[in-house]
Write a structure and sequence with these properties.
The chain is α+β, with helices and mostly antiparallel strands. The chain contains five helices and seven strands; from the N terminus they run ααββαββββαβα. This is ADF-H domain-containing protein.
């Protein structure tokens, strides 16, 4: 049997990537993306540097709050709020056992348990997108405030094999 010339040939099924259909709850503005890029590529040869980002609940966007240069982990912990989540991109001076020094980028997921639940939910919903945008491999979860963010905690996470 021959097919009529005007017959419609079957089309292959449309395949859509899950990432293409994923909608974001919280937007990352271009200014923040540019600032993250600049922070990532800034040359450092000593100390820790940090960029602190929060979610603006009313506008549903991420906003850069502050940058710190040459700050200790303990001082950074004191600067962060006790009852509000933050994303902290950290350029961390890591001293290896063989004497080498490196400056890996780490994402501190600052999410104190005393934070408002709606803020924690928004914060959690934006974490993966922020991590991907910041292009950070390691994440250090901090839930118990300043007591949970110490040099030992960060070293332990980064030196895991």
């Amino acid at each position: 049997m021959t097919q009529a010339p005007d017959a419609i040939s079957p089309q292959p099924p449309l395949v859509v990537s899950p990432l293409a259909t994923m909608s974001s709850t919280v937007d990352i503005p271009q200014e923040l993306k540019a600032s993250l890029r600049k922070f990532r590529f800034k040359r450092r040869n000593a100390g820790h540097a940090a960029m602190v980002v929060k979610i603006n609940k009313q506008k549903l966007i991420m906003e850069e709050i502050e940058q710190f240069d040459n700050i200790s982990i303990e001082d950074l912990a004191e600067e962060l709020p006790e009852n509000a989540p933050r994303y902290v991109v950290l350029s961390y001076e890591l001293n290896h056992s063989d004497g080498r020094k490196s400056f890996p980028l780490v994402l501190l997921n600052w999410a104190p348990t005393s934070s408002e639940m709606s803020l924690l939910t928004l914060h959690a919903s934006g974490l993966i997108e922020f991590q991907n945008t910041a292009d950070v491999g390691k994440v250090v979860e901090v839930r118990d405030g300043a007591e949970g963010l110490t040099t030992d905690v960060v070293n332990a996470r980064l030196l895991q094999t």
